[in-house]
Structure formats: C-alpha cells, structure tokens
Design a protein that fits this description.
With about 220 residues, the chain is mostly helical. It has a single domain, classed as CDP-alcohol phosphotransferase transmembrane (TM) domain (Four Helix Bundle (Hemerythrin (Met), subunit A)), CATH 1.20.120.1760. About 70% of the residues lie in helices and about 5% in strands. The chain has 7 helices and 2 strands, in the order H-H-H-H-H-H-E-E-H. The protein has a two-stranded antiparallel ribbon. The radius of gyration is 18 Å and the shape is globular.
Length: about 220
C-alpha cells in the first residue's frame, strides 16, 4: 500500500471536509486525533477481558483518528496558521498515537507480543528516517511502503476483520486465536498486519535512509 502517492488527488476532498473545522485551532484537531487513538487503544486492550465485538468501535476510532490527523494540517495551511511548533506537535502526537494503538492491540490477546514489539520498532524507525531526512536538509521523507496513512488503514482494517470474524457467520473460523496457519503456527488478522508492518516498515526505513544518503554531498 502506498497511499501517500494519492495525496494530491485527494487534496480537494480533504479541503472540503476541513471547511467545518476552519474555526478550530489546528492543535486542538491534533489533540483530538491523539485522543481518539488512545480511546481505540483502551478499547482494544479491553477485548482481553471482554468480547472481540469491541474491535468494531476500535476500527471506527482508528479511522476517525486518521481523519482528524489529516484535517489538522489542512486547517493549518488553509488558515495561515501552519508553523514549526504545530508541525512538531503533530509529529509528537502521531508517534504517541502509533504507540498507543499497537500496545492496545498487543494487550488484546489477539496479537503475538513479539510481533507487536517488532512492528512498533519498525513504525518508529520508519518515522525516524523521515524526520532525519528533514534534519539534514533534504526535506521530510513521506514516501515508502508504510507511510502513516497506510499503517492506519491496515490497523483499522485488521481490527474490523477481527470483529467481523468473531460473529457467527458461516465463514467464521472455528479457532478465534488462529485465523491463518503457516507451518503449524497460528496467526490472527492483527498478527498478519504486524508482520506486514515489520517487512514494509524495515523496507521503508531503509529506502528513506538510502535516498537521503545519496542526496547528500560527499564529504
């Protein structure tokens, strides 16, 4: 998934969606996006002691968090309030949101904790390589297989599938803990998402680092 490449195409739709929020402070939208992500994380963690049906609101909250994360930047640019402080705050909130959602899903008991740890490390490395490019004067790097829009879509989809497959549909797996089996090892949908994060995240981090390094003048 490479949703970053569609940024220009969806910009008019984002601008239209942002109109009702032009009177808001962009930082408030950033905080709202973080709050929704934390709420999603808490609900995901609650699945461990409750029911996988909670994955439905988890999916919705992740989607809404990503939506408001897009709107804060659009509102800031449209109203002339974009600046380095808001940019920093947005990135800080994004990292905490990523951390919260992954940890919440890990606690849910529907995810292998080792995969969750590796996925989180890959997400943080991906983001670090993007900001490091900016730190050395090459501009913020957004490209790659696992930009933030990609990861939020994958997380929301994984949570929704865990909810859907927890219902008594004819196609629902008989083993809730193992949707897929590879070499005798069972994986949930969230596990598969985390495996993708590990592979795509490491690839994206490496690609961003290589692109930035090649753009720098030789010493």
């Amino acid at each position: 998934m490479v949703l970053e490449g569609y940024r220009a195409r969806v910009r008019p739709y984002v601008a239209r969606l942002a109109r009702p929020f032009l009177g808001w402070e962009p930082d408030r939208l950033s905080l709202l996006a973080l709050s929704l992500a934390v709420a999603a994380a808490l609900l995901a963690a609650a699945v461990r002691w409750s029911t996988p049906l909670l994955f439905l609101p988890v999916s919705v909250l992740i989607f809404l968090s990503g939506t408001f994360d897009v709107l804060d930047g659009e509102v800031a640019r449209s109203t002339g309030r974009a600046g380095p402080r808001g940019d920093l705050l947005d990135h800080v909130f994004d990292r905490y949101a990523d951390f919260a959602i992954v940890v919440g899903l890990a606690v849910s008991s529907y995810a292998n904790p080792v995969l969750a740890l590796l996925a989180l490390a890959s997400l943080l490395l991906t983001s670090y390589m993007g900001t490091q490019a900016q730190a050395v004067g090459q501009g913020r790097a957004y490209a790659g297989l696992l930009a933030r829009a990609d990861r939020l879509v994958v997380l929301a989809a994984a949570a929704f599938l865990e909810f859907d497959w927890s219902l008594p549909w004819p196609w629902a797996p008989s083993e809730p803990w193992a949707r897929f089996h590879v070499g005798g090892i069972g994986f949930t949908v969230i596990d598969v998402a985390f495996v993708y994060f590990v592979i795509a995240g490491q690839w994206t981090a490496f690609a961003r680092a290589r692109r930035t390094y090649r753009a720098l003048p030789p010493t």
